[in-house]
Design a protein that fits this description.
It is a single chain. By secondary structure, this protein is an alpha+beta fold. The protein has two domains: about 80 residues, no CATH class; about 100 residues, Tetrahydropterin Synthase, Chain A (2-Layer Sandwich), CATH 3.30.479.30. Strands 3, 4, 5, 6, 7, 8 and 9 form a seven-stranded antiparallel beta sheet that branches. A two-stranded antiparallel sheet has the order 1-2. Helix 3 crosses helix 5. It is elongated and about 70 Å long.
């Protein structure tokens, strides 16, 4: 009986399942015995060739819906070596890390900016605050997929750079990290706010 069971298990063969990655024309092939095995898997995609040398890494999470394997982007990370290549003498860099909400998700965003020359600590702080306020207000009216798209096409970075230019012109502006960390936070209802004020 044990031998028959062993032979039956050997008959099960693995095969490739195609998964589309959002915002790309890339189809990733995942190896498994059945689609159920691929539910909640993380797929990593190197976007360097597609983005013409920009070392960007995309991560998507798979899900099984009605027998079909779908995926949604969960993070976007610039490879540290790409950031290091932009550094040179006679400049200052400004980085930040904060959580904010968009229409459908709670996000962790890490912008990275380089000034054209050395600047004071006060100017760096103003650059950081200006960039953060702009990104927070911009994210609130966008979905996570829209934000991923804007970062991949440099649309968001250009908008941040133009906003910060009023404080000090930048030589480099990037979003080095964006990650979905949870669902969007629901705003407090008016009734609950009134109760809190009464207490």
């Amino acid at each position: 009986m044990a031998e028959t069971t062993t032979q039956a298990k050997k008959i099960v063969k693995k095969k490739f399942f195609e998964v589309n990655i959002p915002l790309t024309s890339t189809k990733v092939k995942l190896y498994a015995t059945n689609p159920e095995e691929l539910d909640n898997k993380i797929v990593t995609l190197d976007m360097t060739k597609i983005l013409k040398g920009k070392n960007l890494e995309l991560k998507a999470k798979t899900s099984l819906k009605e027998g079909k394997i779908e995926s949604e982007l969960v993070s976007m990370i610039l490879i540290p070596s790409y950031i290091r290549r932009t550094m040179r003498r006679g400049i200052d860099y400004v980085e930040d890390s904060f959580k904010t909400s968009c229409k459908d998700s709670e996000l962790l965003i890490k912008p990275f900016m380089i000034t054209r020359n050395h600047v004071s600590r006060a100017v760096r702080r103003e650059i950081r605050n200006t960039a953060r306020k702009f990104i927070e207000s911009h994210a609130r009216i966008k979905t996570s997929r829209e934000l991923f798209s804007e970062i991949m096409t440099n649309k968001l970075q250009k908008a941040v750079s133009l906003k910060v230019k009023k404080v000090y012109p930048l030589a480099f502006c990037e979003i080095r990290w964006m990650e979905i960390v949870g669902p969007a936070k629901k705003p407090q209802s008016t009734e609950s706010q009134v109760e809190e004020q009464t207490e």
